[in-house]
């Protein structure tokens, strides 16, 4: 019997923490697959995430996300990045238990610098700065709950962050 496939590591963190950018760099260094549940959802839905929010609403997106997280955890042998809000669902937090979960932490100033406050983020459409602050405050304890390690990203380059993740993984 073969052992079930498990990700080398799962990256969680707020929008702009660098899950996708850092995840791709870590996967390239380790020579493993990179997977991102946001991309999985867009492929399955056949449209970009902002359109899913507009057409079907956030609740429907979160349903798709729970399915995408469970499927990716069971089938990705590489580096897996989760959507920024995946930790909101208790189901997702529960299914992460036992996995190596790295929280890429970011505070408001760097998050704003990186993602800007323009169009394209459905959750930040109204009063973006205050909404992003609220989102960070609400989620900080949830990222901490699921994480087996935290890497601070503020004031650091993606290369520095990726190198620390690779070291954490023992490579
Ligand atoms: N440590 C960093 N320093 C400077 N810029 C960064 C850093 N990490 C990420 N960025 C930049 O911030 C932007 C957002 O990064 P990225 O898409 O990787 O974040 P994310 O965590 O995947 O966000 P989302 O939750 O929206 O998927 C990109 O332009 C990326 O190049
Ligand atoms: O922070 C969030 O709730 C989100 C982050 C993105 O990764 C996407 O999953 C989506 O835009 C929702
Ligand atoms: Mg991303």
TrEMBL record:
Catalysed reaction(s)?
Answer: shikimate + ATP = 3-phosphoshikimate + ADP + H(+)
The superkingdom listed in its UniProt entry is: Bacteria
Question: Which E.C. number(s) belong to this protein?
Answer: 2.7.1.71
GO molecular function annotation: ATP binding; magnesium ion binding; shikimate kinase activity
Annotated compartments: Cytoplasm
Q: At which positions is substrate bound? A: 38, 62, 84, 139
Pathway membership, UniProt: Metabolic intermediate biosynthesis; chorismate biosynthesis; chorismate from D-erythrose 4-phosphate and phosphoenolpyruvate: step 5/7
Names of the cofactor(s): Mg(2+)
The record's free-text note on cofactor binding: Binds 1 Mg(2+) ion per subunit.
Q: Where does ATP bind?
A: 16-21, 121, 156
Assigned GO CC terms: cytosol
Q: Which positions are annotated as binding Mg(2+)? A: 20
Q: Which residues form a coiled coil?
A: none
Q: Which Pfam families match?
A: SKI
Please, one GO biological process term? aromatic amino acid family biosynthetic process
Which keywords describe this protein according to UniProt?
Answer: Amino-acid biosynthesis, Aromatic amino acid biosynthesis, ATP-binding, Cytoplasm, Kinase, Magnesium, Metal-binding, Nucleotide-binding, Transferase
Signal peptide, first to last residue:
none
Quaternary state and interactors? Monomer.
Matching PANTHER family, A to Z?
Answer: SHIKIMATE KINASE (PTHR21087), SHIKIMATE KINASE 1, CHLOROPLASTIC (PTHR21087:SF16)
The record's family statement is:
Belongs to the shikimate kinase family.
This molecule's function is given as: Catalyzes the specific phosphorylation of the 3-hydroxyl group of shikimic acid using ATP as a cosubstrate.
Give the matching HAMAP family.
Shikimate_kinase
Q: What is this protein called?
A: Shikimate kinase
